[in-house]
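Q: what sequence does this backbone want?
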């Protein structure tokens, strides 16, 4: 499979209704996962009522989630926003630990954006199209560092790659408003 996510962290929000399709109701929740550095990522998760009792208070409990990193376009007034979340295929209660792993295989769908930080670190932004099958794709923003950044910066649109890493959240400010971006921080990248 070209889109596999494993998350283990603690539930940091209640369930909120997201949508219903074909009689199945989906809820949004967030789980918090600490990195080795101590920084915490708060990841949105979409979960079906069929795999979790949404009337139970899970806040503070550690959960193991297997799923996929998904995207869809949300149309608001004259803008389109890319909404990212983990789609849970399974959820179980576990002991306290933190795991954040993702494996993606897809096609580079925009030229990678390469730059260097003021401290001289190499960075490349990648937009990866990951097939869902049935002619649809998820569009996943990824960020590569160091040698991976230099390597992917030489690749053309249409190149198929496989990567592993973690799903991360990152705060930023836009027009005086604090927002959160989600992306994949790449640890290993290779041609598929």
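A:
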């Amino acid at each position: 499979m070209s889109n596999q996510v494993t998350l283990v962290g603690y539930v940091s929000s209640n369930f909120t209704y997201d949508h219903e399709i074909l009689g199945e109701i989906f809820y949004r929740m967030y789980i918090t996962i600490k990195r080795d550095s101590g920084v915490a990522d708060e990841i949105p998760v979409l979960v079906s009522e069929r795999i979790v009792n949404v009337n139970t208070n899970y806040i503070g409990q550690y959960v193991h989630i297997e799923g996929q990193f998904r995207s869809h376009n949300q149309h608001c007034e004259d803008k389109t926003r890319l909404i990212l979340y983990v789609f849970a295929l399974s959820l179980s209660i576990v002991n306290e630990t933190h795991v954040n792993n993702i494996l993606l295989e897809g096609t580079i769908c925009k030229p990678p954006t390469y730059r260097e930080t003021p401290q001289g670190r190499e960075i490349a932004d990648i937009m990866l199209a990951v097939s869902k099958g049935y002619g649809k794709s998820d569009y996943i923003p990824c960020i590569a560092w160091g040698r991976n950044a230099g390597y992917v910066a030489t690749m053309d649109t249409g190149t198929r790659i496989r990567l592993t890493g973690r799903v991360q959240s990152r705060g930023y400010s836009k027009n005086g408003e604090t927002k959160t971006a989600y992306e994949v921080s790449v640890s290993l990248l290779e041609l598929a």
